[in-house]
Specification:
- It holds the Pfam family Guanylate_cyc.
- This is Adenylate/guanylate cyclase domain-containing protein.
- It comes from Azospirillum lipoferum.
- The protein is α/β, with parallel strands linked by helices.
- It has three domains: 110 residues; 229 residues, no CATH class; 234 residues, Alpha-Beta Plaits (2-Layer Sandwich), CATH 3.30.70.
- 43% of the residues lie in helices and 17% in strands.
- The protein has 19 helices and 19 strands.
- The strands form four sheets. Strands 12, 13, 14, 15, 16, 17, 18 and 19 form an eight-stranded mixed β-sheet that branches. Strands 4-3-2-9-1-8 form a six-stranded parallel β-sheet, sandwiched between helices. The chain has a three-stranded antiparallel β-sheet with strand order 5-6-7, with no helix packed on it.
- Helix 1 crosses helix 8, helix 1 runs antiparallel to helix 10 and helix 9 runs antiparallel to helix 10.
Length: 634
Amino acid sequence: MDGPPANPREGPEAPAAVKPAVRDPPPDRRGWSRRWLAAAIMLGSAMLALAAVRLVPPLRTADESLGDRLIAAATPAQPQHPAIALVLFGEDSFAGLACRSPVDRGMLADIIGVLAAAGVRAVGVDVLFDQPSLPDLDERLRRAMLNAGVPVVAITALDQTPLTDRQRRFLDGFTEGMPRGHANLAKDRLDAAVRWHVPFGDDGTPSLPVRLARLGGVSAVPAEPFRIDWHGRPDGSTTPFPIYPAETVAVLPKSWLAGRMVLVGTALAGIDQHRTPLSSAGASTPGVEIEAHVLAQLLDGRSSPRLPFAGEAALALLMAAAGVAVALAGLPLWLLAAAGGLVPMAGWTGALALFAAGGPLVPLVAPSLAWGAGIAAMTVQMSLRERADRRVMMQLFANHVSQPVADEIWRERATFMAGNRPRPQQLTATVLFSDIEGFTTICEALEPEPLIRWLEGYLDVMVHIVTAHDGVVLRFVGDAILAVFGAPVARNTQEEIDADAGRAVRCALQMGRELVELNSRWQAEGLPPVGIRVGVHTGPLVAGSLGGLRHSEYSLLGDTANTAARLEAYGKMIDARSSRHCRIIVGDPTWQAVQSALHGRCTALPVGEVALKGKVRAVRIWLLIDDEDADIRG
C-alpha cells in the first residue's frame, strides 16, 4: 500500500536517503511467525473447504448425497407416529374405477364422511382439484369437505405451478371457503431431491403441513425454509406412519383413525413421486408421505438433526488443525498419505455410529476437505520455506517498492494503473514525519554493528505502531520515518479524512509511550536512550509513480509532506514536551480534525503562527500534550 515518496526535506540540509539494513528476525520472532502461518493455513483450509462445499456443485451434491445415505441407513428406529395416518389411492384403488384422473370425487366424498364419523382431528386432501368431473360428484365432494364437521384442508397451487387460467379458475372456485395450503415441494436444483420444506409461498400462502399443524395447535411455525427431519421407522418393513388403502377406509375400526390427522393422497407409479433421502435403490417417495413427514416434524417441534453450520465450521477448523499438525510432524510421505485417507474414513464411521445412536447428523465432506487441505498446504509451505530463505539476500536490495504499496496497487489496479504504472491522483491525507533527537551524537558513540542493530530495533517498533494504526511507512530517511495516513486509496468524505488524522495523532502518541519501555531496555543493555520529534500535518497531496523503467517509487508530492517535515524540525525550538520522550507538533488542520475525537486522551498548547523554513505563509501550529503520561500531567 505504500511506497517511497519524494524527500520532503528540501535544501542542502536534507540528509541522503538511507535504506536500513535488513536481517533475519530473531529465532523467537521466526517461531511466532511460523505459528501465525500455521494458524493462517488452518483457518484458510477450513474456510476454503466450507466455501467449496457450498459453491462447487459436485462437492455440494456429494455432501448432500452422503448425508442422504446416513439418513437412509442409520436413522434411529422410532414407533409409528401416533398423530398421523395416511389414506392412499393406489393401483388397487383404481382397479374398479372408470378412470384414474381426476380421482373419483364421489369416492373421495365418502372417505371424508367416514373419516369425520371416525372422529379424526383434521383431514388434509393432497389432491389438486384443477379440473371438473361430473358436476353432481363435484358438488357432492365440495359439500362433504365444507360440512364435514372436522377441518378439511384442500391444496392450492402457488404461482410457479404450471396451470392454465382455466385450471386456476376452477381450483379457486372449487376450494372457495375451505382452509387451503400449498403442496409445492422444494427440489434441489442439482439432483432434484427434496430435502427442504417451504412453509410459506411468496404470497404468504401456508403449506398443507403448516395449515394442518396450526389446526393441531402449533403456533410457532418457522417462517423460512427448513430442512426436513425425516421420521424413523419401527423396523425395516414398517412404514413411519399407518397407511390405509382408500378402498378399505369404510371397514377400518374407528379407533385406528380417531384423534389423528389424516392425509389423503395418491401412491401411483410415476405420479407425484419424488427423490428424497429416504429413497434407496432408485425408489421414490409419494408427495403425500413427504407432507406427512413435515407435519410430524411441526407437531413434534423437531428441527433437522444435521449439525448446524457453526458446528460444521468448528469441526472443519479442528480437522484443518489436525492436518497441519500431522504435516508438521514430518512423517514419511507414505505414512502421511495413509493418514490422509484413514482419518476421513474413521470420521465417517464415527458419524454413522453417532447418528444411529440418536446424535446429530455430522456433515463430513467439508471437514474432510479441510483435513486434506491442511495437510497439503502445510506440506507445500514447508517445502517452499527453504527456497524462500535462500532468496532473502536478493530481496534485501530488490524491494524498491514496498510490499504494502505493491499489494494495494494489485488489488486496486483498475483504479491505479495506467500504462503499467500507477497513474497520478490527487488526495487529502495526513503525513507523519518523525526524527530521533541527537542522532548524530549517537552515531558517533556507537560502533557500526551495534548502531545498525539498535536502529533496527527502534525502527521495527515504530513501523509496527504505524501499521497498527493503519498508516503506511513510505520511507526511512536515515533515522527519520515518513508515513502517511489516507493513501494510496483516496478518501471520499471529510469523516474519512478526519479519521485518518485521528489515527496519525494516536500513532504519534503511542510512539512516545513506547519509548518509555524501549529506553528502559536500552539503558539496561548499555545503549543510549532517545527522544523523538514528530510532525503531523493534514492537507492535499499528489500521489503517483516517479522514476524510469529501472527504478520507480510511489511518491507523495506537495506542500503537506514538506510541512510535516518542517513541523518536526521546528520541535527543536520548543522546550515543552508532549510526553517524557516525545515532542509532537501538529498543524492546525490536523488539530481541528481530531480535538473532539481525542478529548481526554490529549490536549494541545498553541505555539502560534510561525514561519516555517521554505514557506511564505505562516502556519498555525500546536504542541500536543499526552494526557495519559503521568510525568507530563504532574
